[in-house]
Write a structure and sequence with these properties.
Blueprint lengths: L1 E3 L17 E8 L5 E8 L4 H7 L1 H4 L1 H4 L6 E2 L10 E2 L10 H27 L18 H20 L15 H6 L15 H16 L1 H8 L1
Parallel strand pairs: 4-5
Antiparallel strand pairs: 1-2, 2-3
Helix pairs in contact: 4-7
Amino acid sequence: MLVEIERPRQWEGWYCSKHFPAENVQLVVDAQFRVRSMDVRPGSITDRETLRFSRFGRNLTNILPEGKHVVGHAGYSLSKSVIVPYPTTITMSAEEKLFNTLQMTTQRAVKRTEELIKKRFRILQSPLRQKTEDGDVATTRTAQIISTAIVLHNVLVGLDDFVEVDSSMGDDTDEEEMDEGSDSDDSDLDEDMDDNVAAQRDRIKEYLYVNRDHILTHFG
């Protein structure tokens, strides 16, 4: 999730891929739109780097039960803990296309959570303008505002207090990032990945395809 901020005096590192200064917020969410982990970084830090540097990412192999995964978009690397889509190519099989479709459907929970947070806390829909005593942008304070909004969002989710999200909100998040690297045959591979990881994704792909009628009927 990108949250725009005013341009700091020392602006290097704060501009995101969409060419404005921002905080890049890593959200790990569940199916109930509750945020399970968050990490706030300067806008130039990619999603892949944020995962690597975050406390959640560093401890991911210890957090997840055996055989479980985090669903990530194409901006992440395929690893033992993170399952990402297959690279988009003209030779994609029907199994790979179905896998990517279901992957995208699952990933929508993150998008929905971002929309809920920004709808609840409209301060996040405009550039954050918190200042230090000398008039510069208070980036630490902007990160605190974002983190507080996310905590309050979780409280409201626990109270079953949801808001309606309309299409007038700008799309500031995933479409560009989710497509990042998806055109390259090896873009989704982690440097430290072993052959078993790719084989594991293939087994999931084959299971989904064999059971596609049931899955699409009940969850599609």
